[in-house]
């Protein structure tokens, strides 16, 4: 399994997540992340250097000023395109937040993952400020609304709602949030939504960009990260978040974030001075 090549000069700064949005700023000298994927949009801007990544079976290079838009559940990695390293800012946005704005349309998709479109540059300006700048909730809400519409416009997507049951997908999402720390059966979700499992899976992917199980796994990983930052052991965090055991959690963590839980915690603690 590919691993990140460590560099003593690499750093990552994170803001406190606010209402479904996480913001980071980072610098890497060489290899940054192994192949991984999120159930969120990853939207960012390269600040310096050449930011290279593999995405949808091709290699992409993002230059300073470019806007990156990686769709939920699409595998990607990250590394420097030159020996000078690269610096970037990124936000991770839950698809549900864009759905609140778009009202049940299919998720916008930006071909290629890298854009020079000025509409996206303008729409991401507030959200991609330095992570030390705290966004007020209303400021973030306004910025997300602008970004959702910009993504829809740039992607050229139809303004007509996608076929599917948006209400059923919402009910499934709410049920997973309420029961994420235990095993959830398909029969339970079917009963909670009134939708058969195959139709519901299509609904969920259409409106939230990933499968119900992967969405549940990501919520568990969110809980693990919060616990690790508070000093909880890896084994305890895995159990309390709903994973079968520590190795089960660690496999999902590496696949999702491109870092082992232990390495992620060391970087996070180093940046916080802990």
TrEMBL record:
Domain HTH araC/xylS-type: 170-267
Name this protein carries in UniProt: AraC family transcriptional regulator
Pfam families the record matches: AraC_binding (PF02311), HTH_18 (PF12833)
SMART domains: HTH_ARAC (SM00342)
InterPro entries with a match to the protein in the record: AraC-bd, AraC_XylS_family_regulators, Homeodomain-like_sf, HTH-like, HTH_AraC
Taxonomic placement: Bacteria, Pseudomonadati, Pseudomonadota, Betaproteobacteria, Burkholderiales
Keywords of this entry: DNA-binding, Transcription, Transcription regulation
């Amino acid at each position: 399994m590919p691993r990140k090549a460590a560099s003593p000069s690499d750093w990552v700064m994170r803001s406190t997540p606010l209402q479904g949005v996480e913001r980071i700023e980072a610098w890497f000298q060489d290899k940054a992340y192994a192949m991984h994927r999120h159930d969120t949009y990853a939207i960012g801007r390269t600040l310096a250097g050449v930011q290279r990544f593999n995405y949808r079976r091709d290699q992409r290079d993002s230059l300073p000023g470019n806007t990156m838009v990686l769709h939920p559940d699409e595998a990607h990695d990250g590394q420097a395109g030159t020996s000078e390293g690269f610096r970037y800012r990124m936000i991770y946005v839950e698809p549900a937040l864009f759905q609140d704005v778009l009202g049940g349309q299919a998720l916008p998709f930006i071909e290629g993952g890298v854009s020079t479109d000025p509409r996206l540059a303008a729409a991401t300006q507030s959200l991609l400020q330095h992570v030390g700048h705290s966004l007020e909730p209303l400021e973030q809400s306004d910025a997300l609304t602008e970004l959702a519409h910009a993504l829809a416009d740039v992607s050229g997507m139809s303004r007509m709602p996608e076929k599917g049951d948006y209400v059923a997908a919402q009910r499934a999402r709410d049920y997973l949030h309420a029961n994420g720390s235990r095993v959830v059966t398909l029969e339970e979700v079917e009963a909670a939504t009134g939708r058969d499992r195959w139709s519901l899976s299509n609904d969920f992917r259409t409106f939230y960009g990933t499968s119900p199980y992967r969405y549940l796994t990501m919520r568990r990983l969110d809980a693990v990260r919060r616990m690790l930052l508070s000093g909880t052991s890896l084994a305890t965090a895995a159990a309390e978040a709903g994973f079968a055991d520590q190795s089960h959690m660690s496999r999902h963590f590496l696949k999702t974030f491109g870092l082992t839980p232990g390495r992620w915690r060391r970087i996070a603690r180093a940046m916080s001075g802990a």
